[in-house]
Amino acid sequence: MAEPILEVSGLVKHYPLTRGVLFKKQVGSVRAVDGVDFVLAAGETLGIVGESGCGKSTVARMLCHLERPTAGAIRFKGQDITQLSGKALKAVRRNIQMVFQDPYTSLNPRMTVGDIVQEPFEIHPEAAPKSDRRRRVQELLEVVGLNPEHVNRYPHQFSGGQRQRIGIARGLALRPEVIVADEPVSALDVSVQAQVVNLMERLQDEFGLSYVFIAHDLSIVRHISDRVAVMYLGRIVETGSDAGIYDHPTHPYTQALLSAVPVPDPAAREHRERIILTGDVPSPADIPSGCRFRTRCWKAQERCTREVPLLAVPERFRDAAGPVAHDSACHFAEERRVLPPDEPPGPHGLVTA
Amino acid sequence: MLLEVHDLHVEFGTRDGVAHAVNGVSYRVDAGETLAVLGESGSGKSVTAQAVMGILDTPPGRITGGRVLFQGRDLLRLKEEERRRVRGAEMAMIFQDSLSALNPVLTVGDQLGEMFTVHRGMSRRDARLRAVELMDRVRIPAAAQRVGDYPHQFSGGMRQRIMIAMALALEPALVIADEPTTALDVTVQAQVMDLLAELQREYRMGLVLITHDLGVVADVADRIAVMYAGRIVETAPVHDLYKAPAHPYTRGLLDSIPRLDLKGRELYAIQGMPPSLTRVPPGCAFHPRCPLARDVCRTDVPPLQAVQGPGAEEGERASACHFWRECLHG
Amino acid sequence: MPEQPQQPEGAIAGTGAGGAMDLAASEATALERGPGGYGGRGGQDKPRSLWSDAWRDLRRSPVFLASSVVILFLVVISVWPSLITSGNPLQCDLAKAQDGSQPGHPFGFDGQGCDVYTRTVYGARASVTVGVCATLGVALLGSVLGGLAGFFGGAWDGFLSRMTDIFFAIPVVLGGLVLLSVVTSNTVWPVIGFMVLLGWPQIARIARGSVITARQNDYVQAARSLGASPARILLRHIAPNAVAPVIVVATIALGTYIALEATLSYLGVGLKPPSVSWGIDISAASPYVRNAPHALLWPSGALAITVLAFIMLGDAVRDALDPKLR
């Protein structure tokens, strides 16, 4: 593995639940993120998947210092950034930038596109001399595939896909090394999603970026990621290479998640195995003891209520070679293929454009 | 024939002028059949459904032409009162956002029961019993205890089940589901979609499923109508459409799905973006983004014409492309 | 009933033009996606913003046009009353008391023999001054306090919220009777001060709410993740997006402050003679209403029209700034 650029260890975020108006009393806490570890290598894309409420967005916000962790460390090139403030923090911020989900709320409607993309330079005047900024902005717009002459337009004059490109241009302005993308395409039209995914891949090659790519669309995550982490109720339950997770899942939650994803192939309808989970995700304010997935798991046994399963390569796969040997937080991990084998390239392929 | 929409036109008055949201849409649904209407935002798929249901906001909306034949009656010619009797009892709708579609100040039991007291003249006590039955039917655990709960006390998936229960309460012949699972998580999505398909089979309802998700369509639909810029551009049985699309837009959508054998390569992406409905391009609305576009596409609107090809034996396939042959045979 | 159409949630003026998103149908989004046309990068439209859109709507609104004409006229005569009257409001002739209209004195005379026309014209000055100054003061104080509370939250926010509750609990007229009766000054300032004192919590609440809404937008998070200072975030990103509701409420409140000034003057605790104010005149004329109804009618009519004009203006501004409220 290449040099790690970001190391996250023991990351925790608890929000206190309080009661009372004047005299606030803590009556519990929402454990949004409850002990997350991962490593991001330089130039790599780590995909984080999970359902709403699993804490993946909170992780993203902590990486970008929009939220202070309750505990744990985030090391950027070896330096813990969670306790930084002032000048040191500002300097680190240049290196970790965020791309947001909603292209309608992530751009200030009162600012022109030029002002939005230029703002990073105003906040970090050392990044570009004043005389150079206008040119840099136009360059950035061009890089993300927008007409540089449109600097004086307002965000609402652009479509969702174009707005997302503006957001990406703003994120790129300070030449960061890490980009945290929180559901960057899920608000976009289907026909536009592919454009933005392609753009992000191209930029990664061009600028040597490392991505933390958070999404709930499993097929897009698979396409863009080198490694994938699956989150459930504030923890990573399984992590490994994309082939390991998608083709050799060993955690029951991952298996259920993958089997529930609709496959865009009607022929797969009949001979597909589907694991339909019962019930809903428990509240993060009231997390089950032991394994947090046990309340919905068909394999759960008495041991699961007692013992928290650790995220490690399960014993039975420890000597196995290949992608099946990856971290999985389950006492009874076993391999189960749930995705239909990908069919060979179909008759499509109208790639004349 | 359960429902036949014929040459429907809907306009909206906006600041930028008249938006032609629906430009001559025709489709039909049989009893027991699932028609998926596939399209992106602005394609007119939801507006069409609202016009069929009779819940289009007018103004700014305006139905400027066409017929909506439901069991032989033209709904657009009915009086509002007759229309209201059809709604709920004979055709029902399921919305995407169950939290705002349910009344927050009434218990779910009251809202479900209302269907029976209003349309069936039942007593409140009987209606309550039926409400519990229905909640059982959509597999809400401990229905008898939860019938007095308010919508916000249920999770998103459970609320969507209640929406389904409400839509099916009077056993309508037709259900229109507008992105019923889009707001839900993947694992819950699968539960709800399964339930909906099962109930549809049981009641032999016609189902119009409005969605943008190619995966959901492949899972449950019998036939597909693909919409773009207010028109239907292709319609076909589901298997044939996925196997061999006969419209470049459909083909582009299918090709842009990430696939394993394309990992590490560029995804196929349809160029440009969907048009603004206040200025739909002349000729074929898709021509500015189409790899097959030629001069004729810039001037002539292609009619939805029958397609001969795989799966077209029953004359069920149609494409609104001048060059559908080229597209079909790639 | 399942057939209820979806309601867009949380319609807030502050989110502005992006709010074109929730048109009647959820998918009508694309209708107002703005220019760009089908060609992608085309489109010749001028840049549009919330303000230019609002201005375009306002220019077409008959309510706005009518109320602005009235307000403009009021402002002009309160600055230069001599433009339309050559009389002196304090020059009265008891011999003419309660007389009806006569040449040169179209509105007749009041109980003191003063020319009602001249006094009505001069009365505008007090009303407009009080209304405008009180509104400015209230808007400034309220939006600063409320905005900071909304932005920083925490203890200051809790304290401020309790303060607004306390001020809301004070009955305005009773408060005026108590506080202003001890004042001896005969200028408009004590009245304005009183209004600011009691009026700021209303604006503070609105400002706090809209700042909190604006603060949650992703563009604020984006600015934070770039390392922007709180001042920059507040001034550049939040204030411009949160100011619209404050403007709307302030405009509507302006009308009520004018009415309040008249009320306080009527009760004898606002302006006092020899100041000229509609409230004073209404108060003075009410005992003789049977003999000289005109002396009551003209100042009351002027007051009603003025208050109405400001409230209508506020309504029109609200409609223009928040299309979703329609």
Automatic annotation (TrEMBL), chain A:
Organism superkingdom: Bacteria
Keywords: ATP-binding, Nucleotide-binding, Transport
Domain named ABC transporter: residues: 6-258
Stored InterPro entries: AAA+_ATPase, ABC_transp_ATP-bind, ABC_transporter-like_ATP-bd, ABC_transporter-like_CS, Oligopep_ABC_C, P-loop_NTPase
Gene Ontology molecular functions: ATP binding
Pfam families: ABC_tran, oligo_HPY
Family label: Belongs to the ABC transporter superfamily.
Alphabetical list of NCBIfam families matching this protein: oligo_HPY, PRK11308.1
Protein name (database record): Dipeptide ABC transporter ATP-binding protein
UniProtKB/TrEMBL annotation, chain B:
Localization in the cell: Cell membrane
CDD domains: ABC_NikE_OppD_transporters
PROSITE patterns: ABC_TRANSPORTER_1, ABC_TRANSPORTER_2
Any coiled-coil regions, as ranges: none
Alphabetical keyword list: ATP-binding, Cell membrane, Membrane, Nucleotide-binding, Transport
Xref: Pfam families: ABC_tran (PF00005), oligo_HPY (PF08352)
Gene3D superfamilies recorded: P-loop containing nucleotide triphosphate hydrolases
Membrane topology label: Peripheral membrane protein
GO MF, any single term: ATP binding
Keyword set includes Membrane: yes
SUPFAM superfamilies: P-loop containing nucleoside triphosphate hydrolases
UniProt domain ABC transporter: residue ranges: 3-254
InterPro entries reported for this sequence: AAA+_ATPase, ABC_Ni/Peptide_Import, ABC_transporter-like_ATP-bd, ABC_transporter-like_CS, Oligopep_ABC_C, P-loop_NTPase
Family: Belongs to the ABC transporter superfamily.
Protein name: ABC transporter ATP-binding protein
Native organism taxonomy: Bacteria, Bacillati, Actinomycetota, Actinomycetes, Kitasatosporales
UniProtKB/TrEMBL annotation, chain C:
UniProt xrefs under Pfam families: BPD_transp_1, OppC_N
Record's keyword annotation contains Cell membrane: yes
Transmembrane segments: 63-84, 128-154, 189-207, 242-260, 296-317
Compartment(s): Cell membrane
Keyword vocabulary terms for this entry: Cell membrane, Membrane, Transmembrane, Transmembrane helix, Transport
CDD domains in the cross-refs: TM_PBP2
Bilayer topology annotation: Multi-pass membrane protein
Major location category of this protein: membrane
PROSITE patterns linked to this entry: ABC_TM1
Boundaries of every ABC transmembrane type-1 domain copy: 124-314
Similarity comment: family membership: Belongs to the binding-protein-dependent transport system permease family.
Protein name from the UniProt record: ABC transporter permease
